[in-house]
Every structure is written in structure tokens, then in C-alpha cells.
Design a protein that fits this description.
single chain; alpha/beta; Flavocytochrome C3, Chain A, domain 1; Methane Monooxygenase Hydroxylase, Chain G, domain 1; 23 strands; globular; binds flavin-adenine dinucleotide
Length: 585
Amino acid sequence: MIKTFDVVIVGAGGAGLRAAVEIPKEYSCAVISKVYPPRSHTGTAQGGVCAALGNMEDDSWENHAFDTVKGSDYLGDQDSIEVMCRDAIRAIIELEHMGMPFSRNEKGQIAQRKFGGHTKPADPNDPYSNRLPVMRSCYSADRTGHVMLHTLFENSIKNQVTFFSEYFATDLLIENGVCKGVVAMDIATSELTVFQAKSVLFATGGNGRIFRITSNAHVGTGDGMALVYRAGLPLEDMEFYQFHPTGLWKLGILVSEAARGEGGILKNSSGERFMERYAPTVKDLAPRDMVSRAIITEIREGRGIRGSDGTDYVYLDVSHLGKELIDEKLPEITGFARTYLGVEPTKEPIPIQPTAHYAMGGIPTNADCEVLMNEMGETVKGLYAAGECACVSVHGANRLGTNSLLDLVVFGRRGGKAIAEFLKHADFQPVDESAADNSRRIIDAVMNSTGGEKIAALRTELQNSMMELCGVFRNEEGLKKMIEILGGLRERSRSVSIQDKGKVFNTELLGALELQNMLDNAEATVFGAYARNESRGAHTREDHPKRDDVNWMKHTFAFRKNSSYPELKYKPVVVTRYQPMERKY
Ligand SMILES: Cc1cc2nc3c(=O)[nH]c(=O)nc-3n(C[C@H](O)[C@H](O)[C@H](O)COP(=O)(O)OP(=O)(O)OC[C@H]3O[C@@H](n4cnc5c(N)ncnc54)[C@H](O)[C@@H]3O)c2cc1C
């Protein structure tokens, strides 16, 4: 079956829906999503979306840009960061006008709270003076992503977008550097549809499911990144994967940084507020890479608390904030602690551990969300990407909290606008039913396989070994081992067979397709990490503990080769006004 639309957006999270709102009504626009749109991961975002509104105290977009560059450990492209931080203020007011219900301060303005790495200079005349935490993150209690996603969903319905919910994209169609559309499977029937389109935008979110402990929803398997990678296009900076310091112990479910923004503190087994030793000025509100390393170091040096199953954790204590504040500002996350760990946060500390959270890397794009086909910056005609699956790169080596929801609305809109402009002169490229053959072949191979391997076993091995060998700390030996493990998993994945041979909601088949996507994501991540002989942001090499600006102020571009051994190329970081400095907090 062939369906034809001017624009096809793959992904109905914040980035996809914000782009959809921007497509003028005279063009036909389809949004494909493997889950019903409001179930996209954006809906789970808790803490906030930042912009230097200055509603609570003085602030400026330049402060925000400086923090983002410094937070990125100087790997973020500064031209894109300036675009994002400058546009942030307009973007938040626009969300308010679209109907997003923000929490309010006493004056009735949008309320703001502190978040890690967001600061302003103690001396306003000296940007490099001591920097103290600033209230910059706009929020809706601790359900910010939920209300943002619903607001954008309503607005895209108003914009007459056609939704294909529970459709799973299986292939990206590109010929001679021009995008022709995508292929997707209707999960309800297993039927394949060729979506012919003048332009395609990927907004497929993250890939946290390649790690065992993760805050990501089950859909976070990096499908969009894998489809782009398999189409011969590069993935950028995949070695930079963020571990959020505070996941619920053993489960990884997120306890938002808002808990520390509101005054929560981290404690080790002797009750010490250990962040005072690692980041004397901002303490618990240091950026995530630093806090995650600090927690693992406390645990490794024997100052963690041993759990019943033999694994260790530290405490996040909010009990001193009082029941009233907790119930008003942190209802959801404290509810999680009660439900899943049986802990009462108003009275006792919450056991936490770092959890795989956010992909800084992804599909390389320019600031208009056009996908790059190489490290020279040439673009694929008609192909766009935005949100967590994309790498603009505004987050560089480490994202600051609440900069992702901002990224979605700023770059989702810019992608939508760029597409609207492109459509004025674009034509359809010829496609026929055979465009689905590649997907059909892969699906038939899984359905007919009699091999002895099981999806769950391979997936678990991938997640466990990624967690151990390519997590918060990495080294050459471990990464080498991980490369071998990946090779073995790739080989074994060819003999995966499934029991469900039916066509209706065959979630086992989906699991098999997702497993291939996860292996592709892991491959680009591990090889990039192995090659990068330095420590920067979230990428910490124990055998190369220093940042190396002479050799590594550059973005990794990983290209898939048939040998399962990616080819790595590099693109210089864009530096505008902020020269690299040592990163102290
Ligand atoms: C628990 C949690 C809390 C967070 N809190 C915050 C916060 O407070 N502030 C902040 O700034 N950031 C936060 N983040 C990060 C932020 O929420 C995400 O980075 C962001 O929401 C990703 O949005 P997205 O639009 O790129 O993708 P998502 O919202 O993840 O949506 C992806 C979409 O792609 C679709 N899709 C994927 N694969 C396919 C496929 N093969 N075929 C068809 N469709 C597909 C999915 O169905 C979905 O609609 C949080 C993240 C998590 C996990």
C-alpha cells in the first residue's frame, strides 16, 4: 500500500508535535508514532523547561548560553546554543499562549525553579566571577512534560494533522541524497505501508533502553537513529550518553532534579552531604555528569548503603522540605518512591542510583534541522530531525537539566518552518510498492526463523554489559570487551526466532526489530567511546582522565559499514564567543 503526504513526521513526542503545529494547512501532514501520541516519553518529563525569563530574579539569555556551553564541556556548537537560548523566552510565552498550564509565582507570572548547572555570576559586571544557582526552569509541578505534550497534541489536532498511531517505522527511503519517504508497519495488522513524502522529519526520541538501569520508557530503543544509520548516514557523538544521578534504586525510574532544585540533598552512608567535596559552590546542583560520577565514587570507596540484594545506593533526602512543599511541588516523584520502594519521602531519605537518561548524540543536523550526510556539513534533501534523536549539537558532551524540553520546542518549530519553506519548491520522488521489499524481507526472516536464540536473552546481555562496560566510567579494556560482546550478539541475533506467528499486535516481532535497532545504537556508542581517548562531559575514560582540547574539540561521525565496524570521521566544534576553560562549579 502506498500513501502520499507532503510531510511525514516520524514520532509524536514534543519535537514531532511542535513541528506538526508549524506545517501550513495547505500541505498534507502525517504523524507516525509507534505508541498513541500522548504516551510518548515527553509525557514523563518532570522538572521543567528553561528560559531566562527573569520572573524570580535577574537573568539573561547570555547567562543561559554560557551555562549551556560550559555544561556541554565545550563540545556544544555555540552558534546553535545561541539560537536556542535566545529563542527560549519567546518559545515559553508561545507555549503559554497555546494553553500550557504552568505553575505560577506570587505575582501570577510563570514560576521558575533552580536546576543543575544553571547559574548567574555573583557579580553582574563580571560574567566569569563566582556563579551561583539561578531560578530559570519553568514548570508545572513535577509534570511539565505531561502538560506540554497534551498542549502540543491538542494544537496539532487543531492543525488537521493525520495521525497514524501504533505504526512502526521500519525503513527510510533515500536515493542519491534525496529523501523519498519512509516505510512503516501497522502494528495492529503487521501490514506494511510505503509513505511517499516530499519531506520527512524524524523525532523518534532516545535510546536509553540499551542500558539496564534507565529512566526511559520501553519505547526508547533508538529506532530513528538506527534507520538513519542503516541508510548510510552518520550518527554524531553517540559516545556521550547522560546518566541522571537520581534514579530510584534498582528500577531507574527518575526522581527529577527538581527535588534538588527545591532543596533536596544527597547523602552517603554516614549521612555526609558529600557533594560539598566535589562541587563546593553549587554542591547538589552541579551538572549531571559530575553528580553521577560523585555518587559512583562514593559507592566504590565504600560510602554507599548496601541494599538487600547486594547492590549499593546513596540517599536523596527531601524530608526537611516539609510535607506541604513536597505535596505541592513534588507530588509525582515522591509518589513513585512510596509506590515502588515503600519509602515515605516526607519522613525518610530515598535510595537512589544513577540511571541512563539522555542521548546527547544522534542524527546530525544543522540549526534548521536539515540532516547532515557527512562531516563536511552537506545535507540530505528533504530529510529533517529534531528532539532527542537529533544532534544539533546544543548539549555537546553533557546536557543541562530542562534544556531538552526547550530543545524540542525551539528546534521542532525550526524544523517545521524549514519544511514549510522547502515545500514551496519540492516535488515528490517516484516510489512504488517495491520500496517495502527490504522491510518485508527482514520481517519474513524473523517470522520464518527456526533459530534457537531468544530476544529477551540477547537484550538482557546487551543491557547488562553496556551498563557495566560503557556506563558512567569507561576504560580501554572494558570497551574492547564490549566490542567483542557486541560482535557476538550481532551474530546470535541472526538466529533469533519468535513464538508468535500471528499478524495481530505481534509485539514479539516488534521486539526483534527493536533489538536490531538497539544493537546499531550500541555499536555507534561503543566505537565512538573506544576511539575518544579523553574525558569530557558524560564520557569519562578512567585511562584518560583529562579533557584534551588539542586533539578532541571535535564531533564524532560514525558511519555504518557492512562489516559491523563503523567508520569514524570528525567535524570541528563551532566556537563563537566562549573559549574553553576548566570546568569548575
Ligand atoms: C523520566 C524523564 C524525565 C525527563 N524530564 C525532563 C525535564 O524535566 N526537562 C527536560 O528538559 N527534559 C526532560 N527529560 C528529557 C526529555 O523529556 C526527552 O529528551 C524528550 O521528551 C524527548 O522528546 P522527543 O520528542 O525527542 O521524543 P519522545 O517524546 O521520546 O517521542 C518519541 C516518539 O517517536 C515515536 N517513535 C519512536 N520510534 C518509532 C518508530 N520506529 N516508528 C514510529 N514511531 C516511533 C514514539 O512513538 C514517540 O511518539 C526527561 C526524560 C525522561 C525519560
